[in-house]
Sequence to fold (680 residues):
Amino acid sequence: MSNSSIGWWGVVIGVLAGSVRGGTPFLLVSLGECLTEKSGKINLGLEGVLLMGAMSAYAVSYKTGSSLCGVAAAAGVGALLGMIHALMVSRPRVNDIAVGIAMLIFGSGLAFYLGKPYIEPSAPQLPGIPLGAWSSVAQIRAALSISPLFVFGVVVAFLMHWFFRSTRWGMHVRAVGDSPAAARAMGLSVGRTRFLAIVCGSALGGMGGAHLSLFYPGAWTERISSGQGLMAVALVIFARWNPVHCLWASLLFGGAQSIGPALQAVGISTGYYLWNASPYILTLLVMMATCSTKRTLVGAPGALGTSS
Amino acid sequence: MLRTCSILLAGLAAAAMTSSVPDAMAADQVVMGFIYVGPKDDYGYNQAHSEGCAGVQKLPWVKAIEEASVPETTSVQETMRNMINQDGAQILFPTSFGYFDPHILKVARQNPNVQFLHCGGMYTEGKHPKNVGSYFGYIDEAVYISGIVSGHSTKSGKLGFIAAKPIPQVLRNINAFTLGARSVNPKATVQVIFTGDWSMPVKEAEAASSLIDQGVDVLTCHVDSPKVILETAERRGIYVCGYHANGSKLAPKGYLTGAEWNWTKVYSDYAQMVKDGKTLAGGTIPHLIRGGLKDGFVKCSDYGPAVGDDAKKDAEAAKAKFMDGSMVIFKGPLMDNTGKVIVPDGQEYNQKDIELEKMGWLVDGVIGSTKS
Fold:
């Protein structure tokens, strides 16, 4: 039955494969944001970073013919934008939310402007890792062709978890994020730690963009991100600032994106607007469930969003 | 410092005002404004219009200005006003469906001497301002040809159609595609997925993957930019028919044919009418302009390498019948996919029939529903 209908299994395969394909940008951006927020700063500009990453990955891959160069460029551009954000928020009395929104608009505007000539051409894509090579079913082979950036993201998620829990540097980041005053007393440089956390986090966000333009859906257009960078920020709260939970949350959001199309493919067409809205509904529900005026969230870095 | 700045600014503003006096009064020049909802090189709807704009610009007495990526909000009103007041545009083509109500209607009422031409079928005489008109091509004729070629090329008998929204123009293409396919392959079915909006790259890729997983082996679409769908189909090794513009470069192996616009012809006709001093309000420019394959408004892409001789023969035969005007796509007996008779035996809708622009049904053979 290598090419025949697989009926309802298609929905299952579609949603599972969709959660990996569609979840990768969420994963990388949320890991980047997780690192940033652990150090006590918020970077809302990751939506702009995602777009700049997608655009520069596509452009460089097209110009050099190497998709790996594209990914490297995306990470570099992400780090560069992160640097601007980090330098601005390191100034006293600069609000990181406001800077983040400015960077979001700046990043997306710059990506649209510089990306105009790259909408038309086709750039070399990242090769998938054929985890489904054992199967004779074409659908499973296609579903299990995994993005190398997803594998990278999974590795980073576990590494980051270990980094926060068991390494000296990880503890430094947490200390800076929880209580900058105590960190200063320990002799740590709050500014430098935050700078590095924001720059590395932003580089991860840029690589999330590379997945969008070089793997799935695999094209550069201005609508490519459609708010995924912002949703990923919400997702960090959902994941309680835990990198491994970011992974599960990203898979959930990625899967939610593909429910609508997968159901329509088996002929269930009612309510597709509702299904298509499911990631956003999920975001809202998460925000409502986790917001409370009475206490800070479990796991939230103590200095998050303060100007200390 | 502040004072010098404000003086400078005032000076600039004054300069801008003097230079913004429309110079369109200069005889023998026609200024045309084109507005697109997305980028103009997207292998899609906007690229087709932009190619039309570039085509009409070749006329020495035409000055064509364009603006891309203008959302269907008040910003399109701003763009229209700028084109009228600063560039002196005499005729505007805001091309996106959602520009019409309320944006075009509002700006048109304020600028009765400018001609507003909207792409699509939303103009109603008596209800809308007199200086508004609509133009559209019967692209369903080219889509019907795509259907014939797809019906011949499919092995599984399952075709897929990825559409943005269940509006009449889209439903008409889905139905024409299905009728074309079933005219040569009566058992073929067309599975429809609505993505919900004109440009949703992730959702379009997701829809294409889901359809291919269900055994669909020929895809086509009606979205703003078919690029992602064409590339996904090519990667998964199935056939695909293009839409809006020629996409054969994106799917060199699997591209069968495609329905393309030919707006250069349409825009050149309008430019000539404006040059001759004709107006919509005066009744000298028709409010509805329509045309199909025969009139050169639409065309079919060249056949891809996978198209067989039988398919070519049937497609060419149908094309010939469109050219001599004897072909009718929507003729009875036709049933919709819920079993209701839509067109009784013996009755037919010719292309100009306004009934077709109100289409709200999917023909028998389509799997999907128009309800959201």
Chain B touches chain A through 47 residues (CB under 8 Å). Confidence is low (pLDDT under 50) at residues 1-27 of chain B. The longest strand of chain B covers residues 255-261. Chain B has ten helices and 17 strands.
